[in-house]
Design goal:
single chain; 2 domains; binds histidyl-adenosine monophosphate
Amino acid sequence: MSTFKTVRGMRDFLPKEANMMNFITEAARRTARLYGYDEIITPVVESYELLAAKAGEEVRLRMYAFKDLGNRAVALRPEFTPSVARLVATVLKNEPKPIRIFCTGSLYRYDEPQRGRFREFWQSDFELIGSDRPEADAEVLMLTDDLMHAAGLKNCMFKVGHVGILRGVMSQEGLEEKTQNSIMQLMDKKEYAEALNLLGTAGASEKCTQTIGRLVRIRGAKISETLKKMREYIENYYKAAAALENLTEILKLVKNSGSEISLIVDAGFARGLEYYTGMIYEVNVPELDVALGGGGRYDKLVELFGGEPTPAVGVAHGTDRIMLATHEQNVSSSEWNENRIMVIPVKEELAAKALEIVRMLRKANLCVEVEVMRRKINKALEDADRRRMSYAVIVGEKELKVGSVAVRNLTKREQKIVKIKDIVEELKG
Ligand code: HAM
């Protein structure tokens, strides 16, 4: 048989990386608890129709879609939002609002593998359902900032826009939603010239093309100045102007809360997913050219899936990309490296006594391994050193006679005799 390796775009996570991934997931879970988001678990396989409905062409074409053995058109989920919207439209439809939902797990997109882009990747996803108020948008922005800090990252930069501004101009000019979607897709890929061309061929007026052309050039970190410039260009577009007011309110709330989020406003910012109706954002760090997270408001999706009209806003953070960023920023891994302890019986007859001590230490929440290879003491200590254990507890006959063991600090290379009843205190201290 040939030797096997992972399928292109798929990865194994060996202990060090798996540990990091878990640490980041735990940071997300902790953020969810701090903000009151309840965790749910949804299936990896969903109906193709559900996932494709508003995914946008980029994601839709990259779905792992297939017929199952019952001839159902299904796909591996490329994101969590449709699953959450499905639940809100059905089994959760009578839940009092707001509903705050958190999920985490693996997602699948047939992207071209490259740094930070994988075919199987992980997200922590937060959805806040039932509020159309700017406080809700401000909450998800602030939650992302807290999560990035909890993962130990510095210098995060938010890019914020509002789908309602560009779409507001286009819909007032009578452009169909399908054409708007194609234009937004091009803008997402930063193909602005092509987007403007398409506007022309789709029959948009000179004024419309000119307004969009001006808007896509506006971006800046001076928030009020940038918003003011945008306001000047869209004066006569009432829908776009309302969207801009909404964005202004959200950003004012974030600023006045005392939050120190660094952000730029980008008037030409679009995201590939088609369900967005309001504020949209992404978060980046200077060391990576891909976004660590992205989200926004989607007020029509629950309704599209047969539910009541339900406003919603949410965000997903890429666990893999956050891991890459922590690596780039040399985030110390000491936080998630607990002390590990090796318990070594010096001879066969003491194995049961060693296991008894191991049980006692684990009950006290200490991470303990027991020597199972029956190595001689010197070899066992060498092995504990090699595997970066912090302590060895050596169970020997002489010490046991007086109710004690030897505790060796492997970092300081010091050893002392400790009463068995005092080992936990010694190791925790
Ligand atoms: P998204 O921007 O498609 O949004 O993905 C969110 C994050 O998932 C990205 O910023 C990135 O960190 C990570 N990600 C996406 N694709 C890949 C990939 N191929 N490899 C590694 N990481 C990846 C959504 O998924 C929306 N559902 C977010 C949302 C929730 N909007 C509202 N609620």
